[in-house]
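Reviewers of the previous submission asked for a worked example of the structure-prediction workflow described in the proposal, so we include one complete record here. The input consisted solely of the amino acid sequence. No template or homolog information was supplied to the procedure at any stage.
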Amino acid sequence: MSDKYLKRGVSAKKEDVHKAISNISQGLYTNLFCKVFPDALGGDAKWVNLMSSDGSGTKSIIAYLYWKETGDASVFRGIGQDALVMNLDDMACVGAIDKFLFTSIINRNKHRIPGEIIKEIIDGTQEYIEKLNSYGLEIIYTGGETADVGDVVRTISVDASMVARMKKLDVIQTGNIKAGQIIVGLASYGNCVYENGYNSGMGSNGLTSARHDLLSSHYRSYPESIESLVDTSVQYTGNHKLTDRVYQDITLGKLILSPTMSYTPVLKKIFNQVDRPNIHSIVHCTGGGATKVLHFVDKVKIIKDNYLPIPFLFNFIQEQSQTDWKEMFQVFNMGTRLEIYLEDETVAQEIIAISQSFGVDAQIIGYVDSSEKAEVEVKHNQISYHYFA
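From that input alone, the workflow returned the following structure tokens.
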């Protein structure tokens, strides 16, 4: 990773965090996208309980800046969706596709964040839940905690937790990635049938880089949006304002703030039509981007040589920031936020067709080979980038 990324106080690998939590119970399985425990809720040995916690990260700061510049509070509606999807899709990677309990945790600085912002976040969350429930997901929004903690939070943070219960036999483990498998990648961008218009594919990761690399020094006039310990040389080093129209008459702010799209309706249909044993693993390419899979494999080489087309926003970030392509694939999802690992190409084509029926593009993006160590190779513009665990 570049010094610039680290100077901003962000680590894609979070080595110190993983060390700090090393003594916490991993549950029944290690290295899954959420914790899986024995069925404490139902007491059935054939069932398990799932627990996940995640949030929208620094995306809420961009929403805050956009609102301050335009007066448009509706951009906060997608922030609640981000926190929801980051939990929901992690659970879906383990195989949970319905009957979820969801709670949100909102921490705000009351001096800067009025009640109308809280209402937009909650209403946006509820609206997206209702949309997902129309596809049979059965998510119950249980409410949550909203705290006024201005001494802790300069603007607002939006996080969430989720609980589900599923059959133990249906759990999909990331440790099942083996040589000989192929990888189906699902697009994070486009015009999905259950989204409101074009989605840039931004997701909820890499927002600190995107914000500082694209936005101009004008935004230093909002000191509440910057950690004072961050070197000024890496603060708001770009050339743009959030209101600049940069793609199909869409503002840069709206592109960056595209809500994280859930794959769960797609996965539910896949699980209903494809026998689960055909699906060996599912990887949610969030923090770490194309290298996320390195957390879950050993002695295999993941070769991604047929990526989906990289959408405008990630090309724009690279062009404006001159960030090395190797780092781009390590920070952002680059247009492919979900990977499904399997062996049967006929099943792969069936999965691709199901995904495309929702307006979510998909294709075979690579394969798994044997290796002496865990490795990811990404091929882009006839150049190979190598990453190791």
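Residues 115-133 form the longest helix (19 residues). We consider this example representative of the routine output the project will generate in years two and three.
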